[in-house]
Write a structure and sequence with these properties.
mainly beta; OB fold (Dihydrolipoamide Acetyltransferase, E2P); 2 helices; about 10% helix; about 40% strand; globular
């Protein structure tokens, strides 16, 4: 479904952060190109439970917030992909989906 050999970066604003099972979805409205508004992109993450264990919660991303999103794109070329990383330019905070490196010591 996803092309893990490629990455795509989308700069824009958070449209919606859907904190629900089985997968969390982040919707981003890209910056307009040549004055033309683009369709929203989505980034699929793991489950809320997995993200909670590594310090995420449902308030990580807020609607209207500026974001730089990095994804592994869909193989069919549609506007979406697997979440890799997001940076919030205003704060410099970087969120990643590398769960193994984020796990807190002692979690099983």
């Amino acid at each position: 479904m996803f092309d893990f050999t490629r990455v795509v970066t989308i700069k824009g604003t958070v449209k919606e952060f859907q904190w629900a099972n089985p997968h969390v979805i982040l919707w981003v409205e890209p910056e307009a190109k040549d004055g033309i508004k683009q369709a929203p992109w989505f980034a699929e993450l793991t489950s809320p439970g997995n993200l909670t264990r590594v310090g995420w919660d449902k308030r990580v991303f807020k609607g209207g917030e500026r974001i730089e999103l990095v994804i592994h794109p869909l193989r069919d070329g549609k506007s979406g992909g697997a979440f890799k990383q997001a940076t919030l330019p205003e704060t410099g905070k970087v969120w990643t989906s590398d769960l193994r490196s984020q796990e807190k010591p002692g979690l099983k």
